[in-house]
Amino acid sequence: MMKKMFASLLAALMIASLTACGGGNGSSPSGSAPEPASPSAPANSASPSSQPAAPEPAGSEVVMPSYPDAASVDLAKVDAEIKELAPKVKTITEGKLILGTSADYAPYEFHILDNGVDKIVGFDVSLAQAIADELGVELEIRDIPFDSILMEINAGSVDVGIAGFTPTPARLEAVDMSHLYELQSQSLLIRKADLEKYKDVSDFGAGTNVGAQTGSIQEELALASTPNAAHTSIQTIPSLVMDLKGEKVDAVVMETAVAEGYVQAQDDLAILCEVPYDSNGKGVVVKKGNEDLLNFVNAVVTKVVVNGDMAKFIEEANALSDQSIS
Q1: Which residues contact 249 (CB under 8 A, 6 or more apart)?
Q2: Which end of the chain is more exposed for a tag (fewer CB within 10 A), N or C?
Q3: Measured between alpha carbons, how far is 82 from 129 in angstroms, rounded to an integer?
Q4: If residue 291 lies in a helix (H) or strand (E), which one and from where to where?
């Protein structure tokens, strides 16, 4: 399954240029990254790039994934499609679906202690479990740095990447992405003590420092929306929040859903404002050209979005998220 060395280097270079869990439509009905407004309650938002997307090659057209339209979906036909597609899917390890995620992004994916046992939960994990269940295989979760997930996908180490990934033209040149399963908005998280000091994004100029997760859409958004500020990129969201509380950074660009969780759990933090952003939402990542798996995932995403399961996954994750953040 491994690419030849030259191809691997090309993939790594391509993916490095994407340097969140990360974006969706700027409106916020719901919820990580690492850039998708989503259809959940507290998740009015959102894995896991600092460089602008490269121009598309002449003659090529990147089709951005869309959110399933419930009015046009026949769930009986979707179920039949899932049953038809399942036998065609070949996973890296027979009998398993290997998920690559970065479990530091509540409510998307995060660690909790369940009866003393470390467990990775979140609505991205619930979605992965639904895909594995429909496929009739075991789900194996690999918790890896957000900015390594796409490389692991292209190296053939994991079957799917689900970590709040927002589709962008640059990402879609490197990997394939499913229909959107969640929508979101972006916000600036600050110290509550600074609410009188700052009014909006434009206040973060020279002399301020804005943080974001390495390899995320938020990192790219921080650079674009606060061009005169200093910028700090860190691999994990909890580390960014520690830097914010320790006054090493003045604000963190974060999925609204994730920011809301921190504000709910820590009374010295506050959301200053939303950061204007036009994006598509969150999708499941699969290796470029793996059409059988992509088609299967698309069918499962359509099912869980339309039948309401995805909204339940988000609601359950939001209810658990304070166990991680606290």
Answers
A1: 209, 210, 211, 232, 240, 243
A2: N
A3: 15
A4: helix 291-306
